[in-house]
Predict the 3D structure of the following.
Amino acid sequence: MRRGMRYGTPMMALMLNGVLLTPASAVTVMNDVTMSINMTIADVTCQVNSGAGLSQQVNMPLMSLVDLQANRGPMVEAPLTVDCTGSPSQPSSITLSVEPTGGSSLLGSGDLGQLKTNQSGIGLKLTWKHDGLPLSLTSATPRVFIPSMAVGNVWDLGIMAQTIAVPGETAKGGEYVGAIRLNLRYS
């Protein structure tokens, strides 16, 4: 960085090597200052879905309107594995937040894992494969997985999906799409 260059807004000031640079290009010499930086470097390198990442498409099986209205749709797994066996460090936790996207929306508050699809009358019920609990479909309520949930440093975070009828709406035959955005963070 050269002296006299202007950066940012009039309120910004940068401290470099004891020289205070302001947007007005006024230079004031100051005493040397010490800046301490504390950090932990962890070499956690896990494979998500065997290196394929989070993006995937799950095809639900065909079902009749009678089965839909009776909520007898089969459960289908959307696999999500985080394999940390080759990592020199293991995560202390994995946090997953989920929210609707791509034309899907919450069915109710989102706490029961129910998602409206793009087709009137058709929804999806989403639960965690690990324990059968419903996904919270609001990013404000992430799910935290701890190491005791892993087997041999492999975390099975799969999601189970079941087609359901949306109460108060009339379903008709045809294709539908339900989409969620996953945010995975391990620490």
In short: The mean pLDDT is 83.
